[in-house]
Amino acid sequence: MAYEAKTKETDNSVIEFIDNIDSLKKREDAFKLLDIFTETTGYPAKMWGPSIIGFGSYHYKYATGHEGDAPLAGFSPRKAKISLYFDAGSEREELLQRFGKHTSAKACVYINKLDDVDVEVLKELIQQSMTHTQKMYPAERNDA
Question: What DSSP character marks residue 102?
Answer without folding.
Answer: -
